[in-house]
Write a structure and sequence with these properties.
Shape: globular
Low-confidence stretches: 457-461
Distance between the termini: 42 Å
Structural class: alpha+beta
Radius of gyration: 22 Å
Number of helices: 11
CATH superfamily of one domain: FAD/NAD(P)-binding domain
Strand content: 25-35%
Bound molecules: flavin-adenine dinucleotide
Largest sheet: 9 strands, mixed
Length: 461
């Protein structure tokens, strides 16, 4: 068996990567050890940048069916006073999508899975555990059961216990957060509008906890446990933990699981043509709802680069994957840990009050200069003809800077101005390759973009 890219693991990250590569026409084999998708939600939130990646899979409509627009997050003290307000704008934002979505993970995964059937070049096999992976010259050989496959590239999207991460000898840098939490998913059987649409972080010295609004009648509570809490709790104990918010007369307990929340990041993400992405490469506590989001960003960064190399670009391009992604994900991990510490503050008055805003961290060192705009996430213009990324068909494009670029809307104009440029060249993953202040800069950037992805460079130059 042969393919361009073998993907190990069909969680949300592996499925997104398979759709992105399938859409670019590459032959992809997805191997998943479980016979059926995981039926319960883990992630319940993703952001507008991730929705932009789902747009790039061509499945935005199908995925939106499993979402509702997120209202944001409130931090409350033990008396119910709001300390920190991180509400989100109810209107679509800079990404061309809403800033926050609540979603049902099994629904998202089934939409991504069904999306693969659009491509005769993508083959997904479930019930196949990869047990051996090795470099074969420049390429990779994988073994699963009695079968094997020869792939030009392999990507381990195989979760926190990643076999691929171990196979390439990567280890985790521990960023220092280990807590035991109960995560309980319930379905309401009674009307409880008082619970509200915001996520609520209860900064209660007695029992730090989180309430999350799911789609439909799904609701989630997360409650901090003691470090020596057992791995399994029986239903009566779980209901005890939830008693201050809800009773068995008002909801069905669908799932109660004890997790150890961690923050860690792999020391390297690539060995030759073998890569890791998603939870295989990093984990963070779920207080910002960003763990899966970070993995989807990995998939978006890696997909167009592997595609470019398969289409003839210099393989050196792939060195930028880990260096760009590590710093971006580190910013989300650090913020998530900081929020976890905030929720855990035990002294009254120790928590600062006010408004909180979303972060959009730049990429780490990689393609192009890091001069104040290179590596920054660009807004996506939504014009009369559609969304800018769609019009670029997965290629680079110019934002602003004259008649041949995408005309900036007020948000994009403000972004360009704040970065001190007239325009920017935008990469296929929505980040800026670099800024344009004069025609020489424009020429240089366009040449660079054209060299990377000649077949997919969209410009009227
Ligand atoms: C309680 C909780 C709440 C969370 N909330 C959020 C949230 O709101 N928002 C958010 O963005 N993130 C959230 N997260 C994090 C999110 O769930 C994970 O980051 C995400 O599921 C990781 O996706 P993945 O595809 O990398 O890995 P996984 O979903 O773990 O998928 C890995 C797949 O690889 C397969 N596999 C493993 N080994 C092999 C092998 N050798 N061969 C073949 N297949 C293999 C596994 O069976 C699995 O299907 C939350 C996590 C938890 C625990």
């Amino acid at each position: 068996m042969e393919c361009d890219v073998a993907i190990i693991g069909a969680g949300p990250v592996g499925l997104t990567l398979a759709n992105l590569l399938g859409r670019r026409g590459h032959s992809v084999l997805v191997l998943e050890k479980q016979p059926a998708p995981y039926p319960a939600p883990r992630a319940i939130h993703f952001d507008g940048e991730v929705m932009r990646v789902f747009q790039a899979t061509g499945l935005a409509g199908e995925i939106l069916e499993h979402t509702r627009v997120g209202r944001g997050m409130l931090f409350k003290d033990a008396e119910g006073n709001t300390l920190v307000d991180w509400s989100r704008d109810p209107a679509p934002g800079a990404m061309g999508w809403h800033e926050s979505y609540r979603f049902f993970q099994p629904g998202l995964e089934s939409a991504l899975n069904a999306g693969l059937s659009r491509f005769s070049n993508v083959n997904i096999q479930r019930g196949k555990e990869v047990t051996d992976l090795r470099r074969a010259g420049d390429d990779v050989t994988l073994t699963f059961g009695e079968q094997s496959c020869h792939a030009r590239f392999a990507v381990g999207c195989d979760g926190a216990q990643s076999f691929v991460r171990n196979a390439i000898g990567a280890t985790f840098d521990d960023l220092g957060f280990h807590e035991r939490w109960l995560v309980a998913d319930l379905r309401l059987t009674a009307d409880r509008p008082d619970l509200g649409d915001h996520t609520v972080q209860y900064c209660d010295p007695q029992i730090p906890a989180t309430y999350g609004r799911g789609v439909g009648d799904w609701r989630r509570w997360e409650v901090r446990l003691s470090p020596d809490a057992p791995d399994e709790l029986d239903d009566a104990i779980i209901w005890d933990h939830l008693a201050r918010w809800i009773s068995p007369q008002e909801a069905v307990l669908e799932r109660g699981a004890v997790y150890t929340f961690r923050s860690r990041i792999a020391d390297y993400w690539r060995s030759g043509r073998i890569f890791i992405a998603g939870d295989a490469a990093h984990q963070m506590p779920p207080f910002m709802g960003q763990g899966m989001c970070a993995g989807i960003r990995d998939a978006a960064n890696l997909a167009w680069k592997i595609s470019a190399v398969l289409s003839g670009a210099d393989e050196e391009l792939l060195a930028s994957y880990g260096s760009e992604r590590r710093e971006n994900v580190r910013a989300f991990i650090e913020k998530s840990v900081a929020l976890g510490r905030l929720i855990n503050k035990t002294k009254p008055g120790a928590i600062p009050t006010g408004r909180m805003r979303s972060i959009w961290p730049d990429l780490g060192p990689g393609l192009g200069a890091r001069d104040g705009i290179g590596g920054a996430l660009a807004p996506q213009v939504s014009g009369a003809d559609g969304l800018a990324d769609d019009l670029a068909h997965g290629g680079f494009y110019v934002l602003g800077d004259g008649p041949n670029g995408v005309a900036p809307d007020p948000t994009a104009n403000q972004w360009l101005k704040s970065r001190g440029v007239n325009g920017a060249v935008i990469r296929p993953d929505g980040y800026a390759l670099g800024g344009i202040s004069n025609s020489a800069e424009r020429r240089i950037l366009l040449k660079q973009a054209g060299n990377i992805l000649p077949t997919l460079f969209h410009s009227n130059e």
